[in-house]
Every structure is written in structure tokens, then in C-alpha cells.
Design a protein that fits this description.
alpha/beta, Rossmann fold, 5-stranded parallel β-sheet, 28 helices, extended, about 850 residues
Length: about 850
């Protein structure tokens, strides 16, 4: 054990199995000679030193260990050459030197890099400081520039304010002087008329030889300086040249400022007042619409029997779509309306309502006429007071005798055929041929009698193809938009459609005082709560003015609900400008830029006021429904021409603050006595008499402003009349008395109509139709509803629309179903559409429908163009 050779096996190596491996049993061979390492020597010296420093008690053990270690080294050194240790030492020393040199070089390079980075950092810091100084300088320049800008803007605003103030003062001065000139001219005309009467009586008033002017001409001209100043447009204002033009005219009879007829013509001796009335009546021209064309819709009502069911089916399947495409291409709706054979006569009232609205009634008849249809035929053909087109298709058959009722109806229609535009088609062939003849006659009637188009040679056309309608219609110099004009006409008719007087006489006098007041005068503000009767008051007063003062020119516009086309400020100004151009007999290009329209409208107003002899009244109903009305109606603030008056109606709650200083006519609620009388009169119209106790309940109920509201009272009366016909008057009266405002009463109307429906399907249809109309922009047509709900029969849809229309929920506007009042629109939204997802779903339904229709239209248009090219 004293030598290192005893540590190994004499056989040269020992094989030791690896018991730690995962495989197990794998052997490794340990070499016999192991070269000592420097770490082994150092560890041995460390252990020896540790033993030497252990203390006196450990000296024997340390000496023994040292002897043992020395013996081991001696034995090892004897077996391993010392040269190997020296070589190892030299190698390690070289490696250490190389490592030390490389690290020193790295440290030097890092030092140089650090010095370079410090230099770069100092340079960047200097640049940063320079940039910060530049930034601060630019910031100070910006602040000074902004301050200068704000000061310039303040000076510009001050200058603009002063300029507007000077312009208004000048306009006031100008209009005041023009008013004085108008008075002088009026006095001059009176003197001239007196002189003419004296001359007619043979009295010599002055010597013609001593007069510098012509016997029949008296020229009066203002000073040249004033004319040049006004004609130059002082202060950028459009001059009102009415007085200057009139002073420079020669008065040989009436001044024909509106006409191209020369003053020396045949009208020179016409009395001036009579001529002014005639010219004003001529200027009140509006587009003429056919009486048969109800609300921009060609309504074709079909009456048939069991014997002619085949003809009606063929007409609806093959020819009704063609007539629809033809009418829609020309800008009109087409509805072919029919009811099933009503054995129980459930739709009698609705059928009469449809006959009244219909543009054309077609009777398909064979040999017999059921008694249920006799009243409808008499209503359509014999009581046709408006002379609407009527058509009878009479199928003849050999061996069958026509009944007396059919023959009597045909004879009566023949006697009235010329007056009532009735046509009879006698056909004895196949039903398809008879329906084809009916289609030809209907197409010609629609084009000539209903739409008023020129007569065309229909016999030479290929009736199997589409109509050859031009790609772009040229209407020439038409100064009005037909659609907007008809929409306003219908709005005016609906606003004035009231059979009950609401005590407006006291308001009429105030409006008359406005017209007679001396100029200049600001607009008159007609204010009141929702449903207080502002639209009714204005429409009734317009009718009175047109009857009593034909020389007054009235331009009116009725605004619908917000976000509709009638509430677009640019469209309102465009329409009024077109009316001014129409009445000024001026044909010129009209800009479509809304900003320029707002600028040009006051100029057109002044031009027309200079030519028009009477007053000009502009009436805008519900002007507060226009978005940003103060911005787009700034012309209302400026002084108006001397003969122009403006009346606007607003809701009390939404009236702009700047307008509250104007002269105001506030509509008070009805007094309880008038409210009660209106409800009773509505009940009497359907032969319903209220008891004394019920009248007392009404009198006690109508005692506050909300229950005396005009719309509330009207709706209350409609509910009572409807309940009386159904036989549940007491129940509905009790429910109505629980409603304290118009919104709650409209909610009761919805529930009442729903209860009258026969099934849940009809109730759901009512809810969906109201929601679709609510989210639409201007409304939805009946044909669109039929395409959205194809499973719905015409009888059910028409019955539903009749109920909603009679209860003041829906109305027609240019063929579209829309809400009659803003409160009805809000009630439906609160009742059915509180959730935002419901609104988005119905809106998406309309978008999808119209997107599909647009694609189909583009496809048909492309096919039509390709066929035309071929």
C-alpha cells in the first residue's frame, strides 16, 4: 500500500460495471496509468497545510500524513517523468499570458470605445440643447402667431358685425324710403285715375299745349344720383329696384311688369286693380295633377264574380307586373287591389274607401251579378262624380242569357259613358284574348286619362316587349320639382282637413294685422305645444287669404318629421327659390350648391318683391324641425323687403332662443266647452249619441291644457266614434279618461286596433309594418309591403291600413305610408322599439330589400340597353 502501483490491478486494468446507467450492465475500462494534475498537487498541499495548522494535538497525525504523502509522491515521481510536469506548466503559462494579453487589448479597445461614446454623447447633448432652443423659439413664434390670428379674427368679427349692422340699417332705411315711394306712387295712380274719369266726363283739366309731357304719359324719374347709388349695390346688398323701375315707367294703363305684352297693346285700357288680380291669379299657378292620380299612385281596383275568376287571375299574373313596371318607370306606383268574394260583407266600408281612392275600376262580369257586388258597382260606376276612368269587361257566351241586373248596369253605364269616362269591352272568345284586350285598354287609359301623356299609336307597338321609354326625360324649363310640389300639396290638404272649427277667429285677425302692418317688420312666430293646431291654423288662414285677397302671393312649406326630405334646409330653400323664379317669369340656371342657394334666395326675394304689386307672404310650418335652423335660415334675421311678410310656426320647447324676441302668436289650448263639443260632434257624425252622464264625464275630464289639446281632442273623438260602432262605448270611454296626454291616448289607440285584429298573425303584421315605417326615411309604399310580406292578402293589408289611417296614425304622402303626426311616430318607437337591436334589424331589412331591388333594376336596365343596341 506504500506505492501508487498498489492502487491498480496488476493485470493492467479493471473493468467496472456501470450500475447507474439506465441500461445497466454496461462496462467501462479504467487505465492503469493516471497522469497527475496540478489540481491534485494543490489539493494535496492544501490538505498538508491544513494538517500542520491543526494544533499541537494533531501533530502526530499530521506527521504521519506527511510521511505517507511523501512516500506517495516519491513513488509517483518515480513512475512519472518530471519533464511532463514542466511541459504542462509551460503550456499553462503560455495560455495564461495569451489570455492576459487578449483581455488587456479588449480593455484598451473598450476604453477607446468609451471615450468615443463620451465624445458622441457630448456632441448629441450640444445638438439637443440647440434643438431645444430652436423649439422654444418656434413655440414662442407660434404663440405670437396664434395671438395675432385671434386678434385678426376678433377684428374681422367686429368688422363683420359692424358691416351687418350697417347693412341692416341701410336696408331699413331703404325699405322705409321705398314704402314712402310706394305711397307716393299709389297717390299718383289715384290722381291719374281721377283725371281720367274727369277727362272721360269731358272736363278739361289742363291745357295740353302747356304741358311738357305727353297727354297720355306722365314720366316721373327720381334723381340720377340716388338711382346710380342704389343700382350700384351699396354695401354689397342686392338693391330693391321696385320703386326705381316703377318711377321710370310710363303709366298708360296698367304696368305690365310681369308680362311681355307691350303697354301699348290691347290691355292698355284695362283697370289696374282688375289687371293686378288677374296677374296674381295667373302667378298662383301650380303643377296640375290628375284627380284620378291619388297620392302619386295608379290604383286599379278589380271587381269580379265567380264566373270571371279566370280572367282576374290571368290579369294579375301576366299583365299587372307589366303595368307596374310601366308606371314605376315614369315615377308612379301601381297597385292592383282586389278583395275576395265577401259573403259576410265584412269589408264593405273598406271596399268603399278603396273605390274612392282608386284611379281606375275594372269590372269583370259574365252573365250574373251577385247582390253583394251591386252596391260596389253603383258606387264605382253610377256615383262617379269626379269622372274617373271606369272599365267593364263583359264576357259573352253563346247560349247564355245575360241577367237583368247585369243588363241594367250596362245600360246605365252606357247612358253615363261620355260624362264618366266609362268603357265597355264585349268579348265572346277565349278568356286569354279578353284579358289581353283589357290590358291594351287599361294601358291606354293610364297613359292618356290618368297620367295625361300624349296619345300614342299603341296598335303599332310590339306589346310583348317593354315600353320604349327614353333613358333621360327632358322636361324642358320646368321650374318646380313635381315630387316635392305634390308632397307639399298633400301636406297642405291634410293640414287643412278638419270639419270642426277650433276657435281660430281670434288668431286670424292677428295674422291679418301682420299683413297690413307697415314695413319693415320681423317675422311672426306662431308657437304652441305639439298638436295644438299650428298647421291647421296656417292652412285655414292661407285658404282665407287666397279667397279674400287674390293679389297676395303666398309661398308655403310644411315640414314633416325630423330627418325627412321635407326638413332638409337646402331642399326647402331650393323649392322656395324655384317658386320665386316661377313667379318672376325668369328662366335661369339654378345652382345646386346649398351655400350658394342660401346666398341667392334673399336676392331672388328682393327681385320678385320689386316686380310684384301685392304682398308676398312666406309661411314655413314646423321650422324648428329643420336641423341647424339658425345657421341655414339666417336670412330671417335680416330686414325683409317692404312688401314681404314671413310667418313661421315652432314648438314652444324647441324654439331657438334668438327668435323668442320676435312678435309671437301663441296658441292656447281649447276651452273645455269647445273640446266637449268637438267630441260630441264626432260621435254624431256616426249616429252615436252620448248620455248625460257621459257628457258630464267629458266635461270634468277636459279641464287641463293636455286634455284640451287640439290633437288630443280629435283623437279622443275618433276613439269614441270607433267604439260606438263596435258597441263598447262605455269601456273605451273609461279607458280614454285614464289617458292624460296625447302619447298615452295614442298608446291606447294601438292597443285598441290590436284587439280588433282577428288573429295573432295580423297583430304581428301590424307591429312589423309600423316598425318598418318608423325606421324608413320618408315612408313605405303598399307595393313594397306586399313584396316584403308576400303571404299577406290585399284584403288584410288594406283593412289594417284603413284602421291605422282612420285613427290618425298613418297617412299617405306621394304614395308612401307615413305617420300623420310626430306624436304617433314617437309612440310607436316607445311602444315597439325601445331596444336598439330592434331598430337596427328593421333598418337592415329595408336596406337588404332596396339593395336587391336596385340590383334587379340595374340588371333589367343593362338588358334593355343591350337589346336596344341590337
Amino acid at each position: 500500500m506504500g506505492t501508487a502501483s498498489s492502487l491498480v490491478s496488476p493485470t493492467g486494468g479493471e473493468v467496472i460495471e456501470d450500475t447507474y446507467g439506465a441500461g445497466g450492465g454496461e462496462a467501462c475500462e479504467i487505465p492503469v496509468e493516471v497522469k497527475p494534475k496540478a489540481r491534485l498537487l494543490r489539493s494535496s498541499f492544501r490538505r498538508g497545510a491544513a494538517a500542520a495548522g491543526a494544533g499541537p494535538g494533531s501533530l502526530p497525525r499530521a506527521a504521519g500524513a506527511a510521511g505517507l504523502l511523501g512516500a506517495s509522491f516519491k513513488s509517483t515521481g518515480s513512475s512519472v517523468p518530471e519533464l511532463e510536469y514542466a511541459a504542462e506548466y509551460e503550456r499553462l503559462k503560455k495560455e495564461y499570458e495569451i489570455f492576459r494579453v487578449s483581455k488587456n487589448q479588449e480593455l484598451l479597445s473598450m476604453g477607446r470605445r468609451e471615450a468615443k461614446l463620451d465624445t458622441e454623447n457630448k456632441r448629441l447633448r450640444a445638438e439637443l440643447q440647440a434643438l431645444q432652443k430652436t423649439y422654444q423659439k418656434i413655440l414662442r413664434e407660434k404663440e405670437s402667431a396664434l395671438e395675432a390670428k385671434y386678434q385678426a379674427m376678433e377684428r374681422a368679427a367686429t368688422f363683420e358685425h359692424d358691416r351687418d349692422k350697417v347693412k341692416r340699417q341701410f336696408k331699413i332705411f331703404r325699405e322705409t324710403k321705398e314704402n314712402e315711394i310706394q305711397d307716393l306712387l299709389r297717390a299718383k295712380r289715384e290722381l291719374e285715375s281721377k283725371l281720367q274719369r274727369l277727362q272721360a266726363q269731358g272736363i278739361q283739366v289742363f291745357d295740353p299745349g302747356e304741358s311738357d309731357s305727353d297727354d297720355n304719359c306722365t314720366d316721373v324719374t327720381a334723381s340720377g344720383t340716388q338711382c346710380e347709388y342704389w343700382a350700384g349695390g351699396a354695401l354689397g346688398s342686392e338693391p330693391s329696384l321696385g320703386s326705381m323701375m316703377q318711377l321710370q315707367q310710363s303709366f298708360r294703363g296698367p304696368e305690365l311688369a310681369h308680362s311681355s305684352v307691350d303697354v301699348e297693346g290691347p290691355f292698355a285700357n284695362v283697370n289696374r286693380d282688375d289687371w293686378d288680380v288677374a296677374v296674381a291669379s295667373l302667378l298662383q299657378v301650380t303643377p296640375l295633377f290628375s284627380q284620378s292620380l291619388w297620392s302619386n299612385t295608379v290604383r286599379c281596383y278589380l271587381i269580379y264574380t265567380d264566373e270571371t275568376q279566370t280572367e282576374v287571375d290571368l290579369f294579375l299574373k301576366d299583365y299587372s307586373p307589366k303595368l307596374k313596371r310601366m308606371c314605376e318607370t315614369m315615377g308612379y306606383f301601381f297597385h292592383a287591389i282586389y278583395f275576395p268574394i265577401d259573403v259576410e260583407n265584412r269589408y264593405l266600408t273598406i271596399r268603399k274607401w278603396e273605390i274612392e281612392k282608386s284611379s281606375l275600376v275594372i269590372l269583370f262580369i259574365h252573365s250574373t251579378l251577385p247582390s253583394l257586388l251591386v252596391e260596389d258597382c253603383e258606387e264605382a260606376f253610377l256615383r262617379n262624380s269626379e269622372g274617373k276612368p271606369r272599365l267593364i269587361y263583359h264576357r259573352l257566351e253563346d247560349g247564355k242569357v245575360t241577367s237583368d241586373s247585369v243588363q241594367q248596369l250596362i245600360d246605365q253605364v252606357c247612358n253615363l259613358k261620355k260624362a264618366h269616362k266609362a268603357k265597355i269591352i264585349d268579348h265572346s272568345g277565349a278568356p286569354a284574348e279578353g284579358v289581353y284586350k283589357t290590358y291594351i285598354c287599361v294601358e291606354k287609359t293610364i297613359k292618356q286619362d290618368i297620367l295625361g301623356l300624349e296619345s300614342t299609336d299603341l296598335e303599332t307597338k310590339d306589346l310583348g316587349t317593354e315600353e320604349s321609354i327614353p333613358e333621360e326625360d327632358d322636361f324642358g324649363d320646368v321650374l318646380w320639382d313635381i315630387h316635392d310640389e305634390q308632397e307639399q300639396m298633400e301636406a297642405f290638404q291634410q293640414a287643412s282637413n278638419s270639419v270642426h272649427e277650433l276657435g281660430f277667429e281670434k288668431y286670424y285677425q292677428r295674422l291679418n294685422d301682420l299683413v297690413a302692418a307697415p314695413a319693415p317688420i320681423p317675422p311672426l312666430l306662431v308657437s304652441g305645444g305639439p298638436g295644438s293646431g299650428k298647421s291647421l291654423l296656417l292652412s285655414k288662414w292661407i285658404q282665407l287669404q287666397q279667397k279674400s285677397s287674390p293679389s297676395i302671393l303666398i309661398l308655403s312649406h310644411f315640414v314633416g318629421r325630423p330627418m325627412s326630405t321635407s326638413s332638409e334646409s337646402s331642399l326647402i330653400i331650393k323649392r322656395l327659390t324655384l317658386k320665386l323664379m316661377q313667379h318672376s317669369w325668369s328662366v335661369s340656371a339654378l345652382t345646386l350648391d346649398p351655400t350658394k342657394l342660401l346666398e341667392e334666395f334673399p336676392r331672388w326675394l328682393e327681385k320678385l318683391s320689386a316686380r310684384h304689386q301685392g304682398s308676398i307672404i312666406i309661411i314655413i310650418d314646423s321650422i324648428d324641425q329643420v336641423q341647424q335652423v339658425e345657421k341655414h335660415m339666417k336670412w330671417l334675421i335680416d330686414p325683409l323687403p317692404v312688401n314681404v311678410r314671413v310667418i313661421v310656426s315652432v314648438n314652444v320647447e324647441t324654439c331657438p332662443a334668438a327668435w323668442r324676441l320676435w312678435p309671437t302668436l301663441h296658441l292656447d289650448p281649447l276651452n273645455p266647452k269647445d273640446a266637449k263639443s268637438i267630441i260630441i260632434a264626432e260621435c254624431h257624425s256616426v249616429d252615436i249619441k252620448l248620455s248625460k252622464e257621459q257628457e258630464k264625464k267629458l266635461e270634468r275630464h277636459c279641464c287641463c291644457p293636455t286634455t284640451c289639446n287640439a290633437l288630443y281632442v280629435t283623437l279622443f273623438g275618433k276613439m269614441m266614434a270607433h267604439a260606438g260602432k263596435r258597441g263598447n262605448l262605455d269601456k273605451i270611454l273609461h279607458q280614454c279618461l285614464q289617458c292624460q296626454d296625447t302619447a298615452s291616448l295614442y298608446r291606447l289607440v294601438l292597443h285598441s286596433i290590436q284587439e280588433s285584429m282577428a288573429s295573432d298573425v295580423e297583430r304581428e303584421l301590424m307591429r312589423q309594418i309600423l316598425c318598418l315605417i318608423n325606421v324608413s326615411h320618408n315612408g313605405v309604399s303598399e307595393s313594397e309591403l306586399m313584396e316584403l310580406y308576400p303571404e299577406t292578402p290585399w284584403a288584410i293589408l288594406t283593412s289594417l291600413i284603413y284602421s291605422l289611417h282612420s285613427m290618425r296614425l298613418l297617412t299617405y304622402g306621394c304614395g308612401l305610408l307615413r305617420f300623420q303626426h310626430l306624436q304617433a311616430w314617437e309612440t310607436v318607437r316607445l311602444e315597439y322599439m325601445e331596444d336598439a337591436t330592434v331598430i337596427s334589424s328593421y333598418r337592415q331589412k329595408l336596406i337588404s330589400y332596396f339593395t336587391l331591388q336596385l340590383r334587379l333594376w340595374c340588371l333589367c336596365r343593362g338588358l334593355w340597353k343591350s337589346e336596344k343596341q341590337l
